[in-house]
Amino acid sequence: MNPISFLTQMIRIAVPYLFAASGGVIAERSGIISLSLEGYMLTGAFSATLGAHYSGSAWIGVLAGMFGGLIFGLIHAVASIRYRADQVVTGIAINLLAIGVTRFFLKLAFASSSNSPRVEGFGGNIAAHGFDNPLLWMGLLVAPVLAFLMYRTPYGLRVRAVGEHPAAAASVGIKSSLVQYVAVAISGILAALGGVFLALDQHQFTDQMTAGRGFIAVAAVIFGRWDPVRAALACLLFAAAETLQIQLQGNQLIPSQFIEMIPYALTIIALAGVVGRAVPPAALGKAAE
Amino acid sequence: MSSRFRENIEEALFPPVVALLVALICGDLLIMSYGQSPAIVYRLLLEGTWGNAYGFGQVLYKATTLIFTGLAVSLGIRAGLFNVGAESQLAAGGFLAALLGLVLSPSLPGILAVFLCIVAAMAGGAIVGAIPGWLKVKFGAHEVIVTIMLNFIVLALLNYIVAAKLHVPETLHTPEIRNGGLARLESFIPAFHGSAANLTIVIALIAAALTWAYLFRSRRGYELRAVGLQPEAAEYGGVSVGATWMRAMVISGAIAGLGGINYVLGYKNYYEEGFAGGSGFLGIAVALVGRNHPLGVVLAALFFATLSQGGLAIHAFVPKQMVEVLQGVVILAVAMSVPEVRAALRRARKPVAA
Amino acid sequence: MTAPPTAMGGRENIAIRMEGIDKIFGSVRANRAASLEVKTGEIHALVGENGAGKSTLMKILGGLLKPDAGRMEVNGRDVTGWSTSDAIAAGIGVVHQHFMLVPTLTVAENIVLGMEPRNGILFDYSRAVAESEKLSAETGLAVSADARVSDLSVGEAQRVEILKTLYRGAKILVLDEPTAVLSPPEVRELWSVLRKLRDAGGTIVLITHRLDEVIEISDVITVMRGGQTVERLRTSDTTPAQIARAMVGRDVVLSSRDEASALGASREGPDTESEAGFHPSDDMTSAIRVNDLVIMGSRNNRAVDGVTFSIRPGEILGIAGVEGNGQTELIEALAGLRPIASGLMRVNGHDVTANNVSERRDAGVSHIPEDRHRRGLILDYSIADNLLLGQQTDYTRRGIIDATRVEQNAQKQIEAFDIRPPSKELPARALSGGNQQKVVIAREMGRAFTILLASQPTRGVDVGAIEFIHSQLREARAAGRAVLLISAELKEILALADRVAVMYRGKLTKVMPVAQADEETLGQYMTGTRSESAA
Asked: What is the DSSP letter of A235?
């Protein structure tokens, strides 16, 4: 097994997780449960495909994907913040909605139930191992940038305050709902970028192509204890396990299904506090006043 | 009767009515974007579902599974727990039923075999439900995340077992159960010919009635609802909150697991990879629209099953994917209207004299 | 910052003037023509019992509530009905009883939250730390700016809360029961800080009920009672006794029945002066006996610190005291909702110390909880269902609740206790406070019990229901039951109890026959001015 090819494949697998988990971190730190990462991702993938197809430009696809994620993020935000709907339910609803909408428009635009036509992506130079794809670089940088935002800017401080103790934030005049709207919008855009990467990397959109990656991202958020860098490391860990399994496919040391289980099992263990406690933001899930 | 009572009913019924309206409006938009006439499409949808025996049979079949998952989720919610694991509980139940079916001696009378398989299905779901219950009581681990994660784990595990050991070559399913299964409705009512509807629907309705009795007539049900409404008051009333949660998750899991027999014993007579097909998640929608009441769950299950089957019926005119969009929209609309309606009713209520 | 001179001549040194303030919540008049006048540069104590209206008045000052009538001036400017942000901008800083601090952030982050110092787009944390430390040094409020708030002691956290207000330029500080959570040395530290702030030109309003502290620190005292301002006193010119009398003094006319009882007309009181609640032979004759009870509070402190008493059948023991002195924890522990850290509890001679709620109920304990909305009732359950709470097993046969018996019971209780509206299917939420309490009382007193734990039984209840509840308690006593009555209403204790004790800071002070007790004496015990421990 070639270490270079292992690393590059691992990174390629990790990028969607990195984007989505970062989105999950900021939304949940602000107090809004983010089970909708899967839906944002799928929407981003499809919107990017649409955009790239009709414009012929991958960058337009990126913008379209971000826009799609933004719209879905705002829907989730309005339902959860303004209407105070149960955030678990809205998260699941967003996921179902994304599946339905992408399928519907897949049919409408491309007359197919399974996939879109081929679109332009980035890169393509095999020797570059994927590093000629600007989205890959963005994916690697998103976690540090998010960490910077959360720990070094006033907005980040407010996000952390609102997610832990909204009453304290209100007592100093901070508008919690505004902070949360922005956080969820950002999460929609970031998670969508994960889908954009997927779609452009595979040069097409296929039905339900995210295949549960959004939930691996949720696992990474929890396993990473809602910290951007830790969550990113969790993403890399999960991606490494996946890569290992792919590359060892012939050997069948451990059946692939058990490798699949790793992120989820680790998360449950983290929640049970077996190796240190994973404590969510104190006000997570409770609609701000 | 008192106006308060009427207000309770209003609070219960408003959201589903809102859901229906929203679905109709969205449906109109989507249909028109496809250049079709909503009136024609809706009529086609009704004809293809409740308008003919085969269609109606399919609606019943789909509704059956949804009744089980809807009951499971709603029971959990009544206890203050969110069981997102109905999908894997359903699959585990179906699997265990199929497994037992394979293992039982063919000479065993059919009825007994079916009965044992039913018990196995409930056990399968109960085991999967017990895990998040235990983790919550022991460690305070939030059941939403645990059940979501467990879904993946259990489904992967089942996938492994079937793929590695138990499948019929070239397929993704287990061998057929020899003792027989639950009869299709077509054997009683010839009009249902060709549809998957089977006796499980009867079991589903019985389960709904039993769930109602448990929740609203039994002592444990009284305590369960108390824990879901005001855990501190329940504690004051001598109820162990932890034990109640555990009980609720186990029963919820068992009901979801029982749903597995619809496919495994009633339709195909074997366990097949992916047979759950999202019914576990849709059960959440069913519980929500059904306002967590067994009667509402039955009606909501019929609603969503009609949508699902109706999508197929109108496929020539509008892609059936429209139905999936409607599903998501309905769930969002109901979820948003529940707190809104509650708040509006509170505002409208006259202040009580001290 | 000195107030600008105004056209009204000599008023410029009045920091706060509130006049004729009315505030009504539903049918409760929280403030009734209340007034307050605080000069700049003074430490002003606002005292009164629970429900006297002090917090409401301060919430109006702080902009959290708007008055229904009246006028408010700050530094000579009419600010009636302003908002929180206006108040903060004008230099009013409120330090709440329950801290508004984000536990996961550091001290400096909490202090600057919402007004963060910036360096371009960055949050300049080092400047936040520097400014916090500077402020801390200037005021003598010692904090470590870089510490996480969750690691702080209560005293330190309070200092952070004060610094928060000062960082925003507060010149008028309102502190709500600041010493409730402090140890004596921390209290002294707080005093020196407050004096320093006053000497620097700040104005301080201290909401408290602890008169020993009021004497120590304040310059002027305003006493509130029943929503009204009843006295204004110079601290140097008054005595604790005078203050206590103003706080608890006679107010509305008692109902004739209560009046007669208070005079001891219908009662045979058993006791002698040496009665301290502990007789060696009590095991057999006491309905409930409690020895050296220690119960831990939520801050790992001893909320109940070695309490001993006993109650005989046919006797009402009243425990008076301002809330927050351990009564809540005591009753919860006696009911089985809180663990007893050490000590003994016996009912009818049986040791029930380790029993759970149901077991205690079976042993004869009934409990009227102080918070009927949280504990006592399930608001969405019907009246009939609420009448089962805690006793549901008695109505169960083979796992099913006997609906007929439930209905019959509901009918009977509704009639016996005059619950209105008399509709058993109505959710408890729809009833008035008095009727809700009647449901609780019907349930807890309508069964055979040995000892009734009654905590604030008439709180939030209308006058008619109060009379009814009082007569129920008297009937129980006449029928040979024991009652532990915990109430913040002195009139109630004096009207009903046979013996009276006062709870102050977790300890039970002197237990005395009611004939020896009066409001003034009790008031002194309640506020810590007098303290002789029981036995």
From this structure: H
pLDDT at C439: 95
We report the CATH number of the domain holding residue B202 as 1.10.3470
Q: Is the pLDDT of residue C254 over 80?
A: no
Interchain proximity C123–A152, CB inside 8 Å: yes
Domain that includes residue A23, residue range? 6-117+131-272
Tell whether omega for the bond before C513 is within 30 degrees of 0, i.e. cis. Answer: no
> Is-contact B297 B290, C-beta < 8 A?
yes
Q: Which domain holds residue B116?
A: 37-317
Please indicate, yes or no, if residue B68 is contained in any of the structural domains.
yes
In a domain, A148, yes or no: yes
Each residue of C464-481: b (16+ CB within 10 Å) or e? ebbbbbbebbbebbeeeb
Query: To the nearest whole number, what is the mean pLDDT of chain B?
Result: 87
Domains C9-248 and C256-364+448-526 share a fold: yes
The answer to whether position B344 is within a domain reads no
**Residue ranges of the domains in chain C?**
9-248, 256-364+448-526, 377-447
CA distance B299 to B204: 12
Closest CA to B289 of B132, B69, B89, B129: B69
- What's the gap in Å between the CA of B206 and the closest CA on chain C? 18
* Number of domains chain A is built from: 1
Query: Which candidate from C377, C392, C431 shows the least CB-CB separation from B219?
Result: C392
- At a CB cut-off of 8 Å and minimum separation 6, what does A77 contact? A32, A180, A181, A184, A185
Residue A196 CB partners (closer than 8 Å, separation 6+): A44, A45, A47, A48, A61, A62, A65, A66, A135
* pLDDT at B170 exceeding the cut of 90: no
The answer to whether B231 faces chain C, any CB pair under 8 Å, is no
Q: Do A165 and C101 count as a contact with CB atoms less than 8 A apart?
A: yes
Interface residue of A151, A171, A284 to substitute, partner C, most C CBs within 10 Å: A171
Query: Could you give the C-alpha distances from A51 to B265, B327, C58, in angstroms and in order?
Result: 47, 26, 58
Q: CA of A262: which chain B residue's CA is closest?
A: B153
Contact list in B for residue C400 (CB cut-off 8 A) is 217-219
Burial zone of A115 (CB within 10 Å; 0-12 exposed, 13-18 middle, 19+ buried): middle
Q: What is the value of ipTM here, to two decimals?
A: 0.87
pLDDT, tens only, A63-121: 999 999 999 999 999 999 999 999 999 999 999 999 999 998 998 889 888 888 888 88
CA distance C163 to C100: 12
Within C168-218, residue ranges assigned H as helices are 184-199, 211-217
Question: Is position B118 within any domain?
Answer: yes
Task: Give first-to-last CA distance, chain B, whole Å.
Answer: 23
Upper half-sphere CA count for residue A249 (Cβ side, 13 Å)? 4
C9-248 under CATH 3.40.50.300, yes or no: yes
Question: Does the structural domain C256-364+448-526 have CATH classification 3.80.10.10?
Answer: no
What is the per-residue burial (b if ≥16 Cβ within 10 Å, else e) of C373-394?
A: bebbbbbbbbbbbbbbbbbbee
Residue C5, pLDDT above cutoff 70: no
Does the structure show a pLDDT above 50 at C478?
A: yes
Q: Taking CB atoms and an 8 Å cut-off, how many pairs form between chains B and C?
A: 89
- Domain holding A183: CATH number? 1.10.3470
Average pLDDT over residues A7-29: 96
Neighbours of C486 (CB within 10 A): 24
Assigned domain for A67 exists: yes
Q: Which residues contact B17 (CB under 8 A, 6 or more apart)?
A: none
The sign one gets for the Cα dihedral C471, C476, C480, C486 is: negative
- Separation CA A81–CA A97 (nearest Å): 19
Work out the minimum CA distance from A171 to partner chain C, whole angstroms: 7
Chain A nearest-CA distance from B158, in A, is 9
Q: Does residue B26 lie within any of the structural domains? A: no
In contact, A68 and A43? CB cutoff 8 Å: yes
> Considering its fold, how many domains does chain B have in total?
1
